Amino acid sequence: MPLKFKVLPLILLLLASCGADDRKQAYYDHGVELLSQGDRIKARLEFKNVLQIDPKYAPAWYQLAEIEAAEQNWSAAFGDYGKALELDPQNVDAHLKRGRLLFGANQLDDASKDVEAVLAIDPQQPSALALRGMIRAKQGDVDAGIADANAALAVDPKLRDGLVLLAEIRRSQKNLDEAKRLLRTAVEAHPEDVSLRIMLASILMDGGESDAARAQLEQAVKQEPDQLAHVARLVAFETQQGHLDRAEETLKAAVAAHPDDDQPRFLMVQWITQQKGLDAAAATLKGFIAKEPDRYSLRFALADLYRKSGKADEAVAVYREIIERDDDGANRLRARGLLAALLLATDRQDEAEALVAQVLDEDSRNTDALVVRAAIALKRKDADRAVADLRNVLQNVPNAVNALRMLAAAHEMRGEVSLAQDALDKAIQAAPKDPQAYLQLAQLRFSHGDAQGATSVLQSFLERTPDNAQVQSALARLQLSQQDWEAMKKTADQLLKSQSDHPLGHYLAGLYAQHAGDLEGSVKHFETALEKRPDAIEPKLALARSQLALGRAEDAERQVQQVLDKQPVNSSALSLLGEIYMATGRLKEARDQFAQMIVLHPESPAAYVRLSDLQARDGDPAASVETLRKGVDATNRNAFLVFRLGQALQQDSRPDEALAVYEEVLKTNPDADAVINNLAMLLANDRKDDPESLAKARELVKRFEGSDQWVLLDTLGWVQFRVGELDQAAATMDKVVSMVDKVPPEVQFHRGMIDAALDRKAEAKDLLAKALASGVDFPGIDEARQMQAQLNR
């Protein structure tokens, strides 16, 4: 009897185990069946049921990956293929699928690992050979790519990837006949694969076989009539061939074939806008509306067409018609929200605000109205109101890109930089091909001192869309502000290659040539940019700068005056005109010019700096200091102006005030080497008898150890001397001397003082004599004279 009690639990456990295995298999088989029927939603649930029972069941992870890949959820597919391979490293299909994803993401080394894992299992696996060929060809080893493609086709002559790879290589080699033959073979072997027909059509077009190309595009439409992209491609082909009637008939056929789908109608309106103009497109939409007056999507499309074309009054009329027609429906609310947004955009804020209030009285969560109210709040600098409304919007529409960008602006207004970045990251995830969120995030990072982060943001967009001129321009401006000339040259070269007719590439190339000292070359680039866009201001001013540097002051002045004729208060032009006056010795005109700039542009630091320099040049350091003080106050204590004020105070023999000013700059710019350099040198010279000041100077110049700038090393060596580190000071100054062609008098003075302290009297006397004989009034000249007298006793 006891034996029965001991055996019974074991039997129950075995039965339970068998039941779980049966249920797991049943779920899995049903999932596979559903997947074969095209029901991915239910199939996914079945495979998840499998994993509830057995989380380590690799086939279920693989099937989930296949579903994610079919729905183009690439990140999720990649993770699921990885999980399947973690549990079953021998899964050839999972390796190949993941390898293709990695190849598509340009992660070629990782893709190669998956390929080699397959070839280790089966050295003749054709798909793996083809993928390896694709990787090698992309890495530039075309011969190896061809060899792999041929090896794959030797195993499977109809292998899609092998035929496509070889066709692409032959096309790149201008062997169109062979490329066509290979793709025709692929189409015959895989007639259901529409993408092959599209590739074949492209090659046929390259070869001038337009009728054959049209046949392939028409077949693509016939095979997948619900794919509007095929229709758009065929229409674009007919338009390019000049067969506008055929293109329009194709669009009409698509509209007739999809009576319940708005998209073919919208495609037709877009095409008519491009080919026949706004009025014809509006008439087409009105014709659709006349046939289906209650199809409000068409009315909204008409309003949107007017709005985007700058016809705000016509758009307003359409919205008001929707509001009147749909007495109490959702379309009425939507139209009122969009109308409010349009009124706000056209500076009719009071009307917009009143309309928003009406909408929100009826529907407190109306998305369009909340967005408009948030925009009004941002205009009024009421960030709290904006944040509250935008959060309500995002509860209903989490991926609303415009709302996320506005939320970022509101958070930035409140000083919540990390929250602003988070909102923009989400906007980028929601719309990875829209440049605006990238531009906003780059500006946010740059304005808060992260220039490298800003650059990375813009580069990440250009990896997706390399030919976007707006982002390329922003990146170039960023590179220019950071003086990253080599990076800017790459941007210029890319633009000249991808958009040779765009003036930006020539403008950037001109700036690089200007920086490199090739002034004549820069002139040619700037002139080319102006040929392509005669009204462009920046190339014209850049051309003037090169002409001025070449001694062609009259030409430069003429260019600047042309700008000022169109834009009389352009700050860059006004400043450059002042530079021209200075270069040509017209100092009174230069002073008047910069004084005028200060009146017109009190926020511009450059005008204060230039006027201050002229005043110092005239021997009036007090006026120079006063000008910079005014600039500091007018620009909310611009860090560069505060630094220049410190220099002016130092030159006016006001060291205590200069010290306070330098320390102010370092509070907000702790890594500013120029400021640290001046402050350390000031402490070493004017407070050389104060051990606390010298200790502070020594701490400041630690960062200069290992520097490749002789000016910073000179300060390091001088401070080391002041604190008694004589051997270190001598070694540092030896490095300084080795870095300059002609040793400046101040460096000779510093090295001479160090030699004197080390009892190298002959060397010290020689260096101090050279420094004093130079005629240069360097800092510490009186100390040099005293030491020279002492050594000569």
UniProtKB/TrEMBL annotation:
Source species, domain of life: Bacteria
Keyword Repressor tagged: no
TPR repeats: 24-57, 58-91, 401-434, 571-604, 639-672
Residue ranges of every copy of the Tetratricopeptide repeat protein 21A/21B fifth ARM repeats domain listed in the record: 437-529
Keywords: Repeat, Signal, TPR repeat
Leader sequence segment: 1-20
Gene Ontology MF terms: identical protein binding
InterPro entries, per database record: ARM_TT21_5th (IPR056835), CellSynth/LPSAsmb/PSIAsmb (IPR051012), HAT (IPR003107), TPR-4 (IPR011717), TPR-like_helical_dom_sf (IPR011990), TPR_rpt (IPR019734)
Gene Ontology biological process terms in this record: RNA processing
Pfam families linked to this entry: ARM_TT21_5th (PF25064), TPR_16 (PF13432), TPR_19 (PF14559), TPR_4 (PF07721)
Keyword Chloroplast belongs to the record: no
Protein name: Tetratricopeptide TPR_2 repeat-containing protein
Protein species of origin: Thiorhodococcus drewsii AZ1
